[in-house]
Specification:
Length: 116
Amino acid sequence: MWALSLDGDVAVTGNKNSVDIGFNDIWDNLNFAGMVEFEARENRLGVFINPLISQLEDDNDLLDLTIDLDIVSFGAFYRLGPWTLDPSVDARGDIVVDLYAGGRCPGHWHGATERF
C-alpha cells in the first residue's frame, strides 16, 4: 500500500513557504488517485514503469486550490534464484530474489487557484 504526502518548499511570485502535508490531510482533499505497474521480463532480466496520478482540491473562504501531481517510477531488475526449499514440492515452493535499480521523477505538478 502506498500513501501520498507532500514535504518541501513552494514559491509563488517570490514568496517562499514550507509545505508539510500528511496523508490524513491529503485523504480529506483527494479527488482521485490511480497507480498501475507495467512489467516485462525475459528470463532473468526485466524492466518496469509505474505511473501515479492524483488530484487534490481544497476549498476555503479565501480561494479554491487544485493540485495535479504525477510521478513516474522506472527501472530494471535481475532475478536471482530460484532456490528450492523442498525438492518434493512443485515450483510453488521456490524462493526468488529480484535486484532492482531505477529512479523516480515528478512527471507533472500543476496548481491552480481561484479567488472569490
